[in-house]
Design a protein that fits this description.
Strand content: 15-25%
CATH topology of the largest domain: N-terminal domain of MutM-like DNA repair proteins
Strand order of the largest sheet: 1-6-7-5
Mean pLDDT: 92
Radius of gyration: 20 Å
Number of strands: 10
Number of helices: 7
Structural class: alpha+beta
Distance between the termini: 28 Å
CATH class of the largest domain: Alpha Beta
Shape: elongated
Low-confidence stretches: 219-224
């Protein structure tokens, strides 16, 4: 599933092509992705001008005057920029044509993505977005905030980091990498984290996410950017997916364990 760096890379990638362009046509070839699409979706967004491209958590929001088109990539969704001469690909379910003659296409083999239209900002009105936690790269996600959220929590810290009501956008990959960088075992009980642990972890999360965005995200499984290129942060993985390979610091084997039904990777010597 694309995580925050991949979604941010996608938003940044489509922005130059969409900003200040008018939507001249829209094509929807399925009735349902994760949920049913609005029946009048195509009609609602034709002839509107795109004024802003933003991201909230793993949602990309394309907006203009009195309209918001919100897209979630789901597990296998991608957005790409195409020309009219470019043939449609299998699993292209949605596209908008722009006044520049470019086309934005949404491809989703497993149909777990989401697309919905609204007249007001979904950040303020949609049930999926209004209760989300702070952005991990924002100022509100800091050591004091994380420490307060870990108090009286008997769950593994990795599970807490992947709770979007606590902090958004930190999926399996970046939680594993951030915990390694901060020297914290993923199964450590949240309430046992010290203030220093929380400070180190917040700093590690921000560092890992910024570096991943800089490198275009992590291209594993199906993720590619809007121009069809792969990200390359996966070449920097310290623990994720490296079971039985030597730790870059102490040379001990990287271990794998299941936490909340998700694979977690760590070094028993470097993480406590």
């Amino acid at each position: 599933m694309p995580e925050l760096p991949e979604v941010q890379t996608t938003a940044d990638g489509i922005k130059p092509y969409l900003l200040h362009k008018k939507i001249t046509a829209c094509s929807v070839s399925v009735k349902k992705l994760r949920w049913e699409l609005q029946k009048d979706l195509a009609k609602k967004i034709i002839n509107v001008k795109i004024l802003e491209i933003t991201r909230r958590a793993k949602y990309i929001i394309i907006s203009g005057k009195n309209f918001y088109l919100t897209i979630h990539l789901g597990m296998t969704g991608t957005l790409r920029i195409a020309s009219k001469k470019d043939p449609r690909m299998k699993h292209d379910h949605f596209e908008i044509q722009l006044s520049s003659n470019k086309i934005l296409r949404f491809n989703d083999p497993r149909k777990f993505g989401m697309i919905f239209y609204s007249l007001e900002s979904p950040i303020l009105s949609h049930r999926l977005l209004i209760n989300l936690g702070p952005e991990p790269l924002g100022k509100y996600f800091n050591k004091e905030y994380l420490f307060s959220k870990t108090r009286n929590r008997n769950i593994a810290i990795k599970s807490l980091l992947m709770n979007a009501n606590i902090v958004v956008g930190i999926g399996n990959i970046y939680a594993s990498e951030s915990l390694f960088l901060s020297g914290i075992k993923p199964s450590k009980v949240s309430k046992k984290l010290t203030k220093k642990n929380c400070s180190d972890l917040v700093n590690s999360i921000k560092e890992v996410l910024k570096e991943a965005i800089k490198k275009g995200g992590s291209s594993i499984n199906d993720y590619i950017s809007v121009d069809g290129k792969s990200g390359y942060f996966q070449f920097d993985f310290k623990v994720y997916g490296r079971t039985s390979q030597p730790c870059h610091i102490c040379q001990s084997d990287i271990l794998q364990v299941k936490i909340n039904q998700r694979s977690s990777f760590y070094c028993k010597n470097c993480q406590k």
